[in-house]
Amino acid sequence: MAAGTRALRLHETFLEAPALPPPPTRHALLAFLIVLAAILHIGTVGWSEIQNGAEGSYASTARALWRAETWTTTEPPLHDWLTIASYKCFGATAVGARLPVALAMVASIALTFLIGERIGGYWRGFVAGLIHLCAFGSFLWARLATPEPLFAACLGGTIFCALFGYQEQRRRRFWFAAAWVGVALACLTKGVAGLVFPGALFLLLALCFRPARMRFRLLLHWSNLLLFLAIVLPWLAWVQWHEPTFLREFASSSWLLPSAHLRRLSDGGVSFLWFKTSHFLWWFPAVFLVFPGVCFGWRKVIRPSEFDFADALPLGWMAIGFLPCLFDSHRQYFDSMSCWSAWALFAAMAWERSPRELRMAGLALTALAGAAVTGAAALNFNLLPPIPPDLGLSVKSVLILAGACVLFFALIAAYFSARDRETLAIALVLLGMVPVGLAAAEGLARYGKFLSFANAAGLLQQRLGERGEVLFEDSPLAGSSLNFYLDRPPLLVQAAAGPGPVIEKLARRQPVYLIIRADRVPYWQEELTERFHLYHQEAICGNYVIVSNEP
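Predicted structure:
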């Protein structure tokens, strides 16, 4: 009589080779990426003040919740919650506002490495992580205190868990459940887009590949749906209980329309043409490196006869993340950040598969771009908006340094690429962008008075007292940093309303300060001189002038 026997499951009847432990090189590459990302993003969170625009709007919203000692908001709350927690630890400062975003960016880089490792090995994952980290757009837009880096991290975690479940049968149920946790967190960051984005991606992959159809069915298991609802629904019920109008306004909120409050504050977004062409700059230098291979060697890059799930994943991810931005009239430059990881994965694959001659052509394009920036800065061509004389020399030095770094490392990389050391070659070019990223962060700090009202708010806060007021004549986003740095938000003034309401305010005995654009100075100088026989200009802040009613 047999004792202790049991029935074997189907997958246990097949012999599988035991998985080898990852080599030390893999751990070293991942650790290097994480440390470098921490230096570039966490180490520079306090280098510049909170900027006007989207960053000032999001940072001031979280600051208002923090001062009111409440966690309840009708917008997707995860970014605000993390920012409030950071304020409690570090205060309502630029460091407190940007630290959650910096941590999310480090997580995104690590997830890019892990996804690349699953579909092409750890060396591809390392190159993809470097491309993502060292892209010029990551140095600029991923440092701003907006929900986009957090959403990108949640989306990357969702795709990594789904990919792991797709490849690992024994733990598939666990990894698919983890993917739904990522979807729930993405929904709490940007609303319904957090569900639609990965859902559309997995549906597209399932339609194209039969194994994906069979394996992704488990994603729709009732336990996963219950887990998602258990995370998201309690918060929606809580908000409805505290804000009875929440469900009536749901269709026009950020839960259905991403960044709906930014849409209400701005008249429009970036033009269609500028949004497309600007990505040649945001994705530099990788876009120059792989451009010849993708254009002239696309059959070797895409491999139509061998096109599989691993090749389709980054392409589908890019399509679903980038194409909707093209049809959104309120698009911003950073709206495509959710698919920058996919771009990095595709660029790493394209570089790996491109012929040597086309890789050399890509390095030549990159070196030419570096030489062009260096030459233009040295010859005083206008590469940036008008710069005041006191900043001209420092900005010129930063541009020359950036162009020289790109040129120098591209030439060294060409030597290794000619000897079929393509991974080392692209790593050198990308690491050459590290000084460029640090220079960009320093440049934003020096250019700060054109991007932020931090200094002006510090001056005004001391003089306002209990009854003083600040009037701002421009769009809400143009002065959003005032909401962050002032204890009382400024009163917005519309130029179309005429001078009457402003003159009535300035006629009072309490301190009143009017912030106007520099091109509006002649108009207000004439109006105030005619009414009060006095025009008192307090200070100049970048392209704005501060006028007061005090002699």
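Summary: The longest strand covers residues 512-517.
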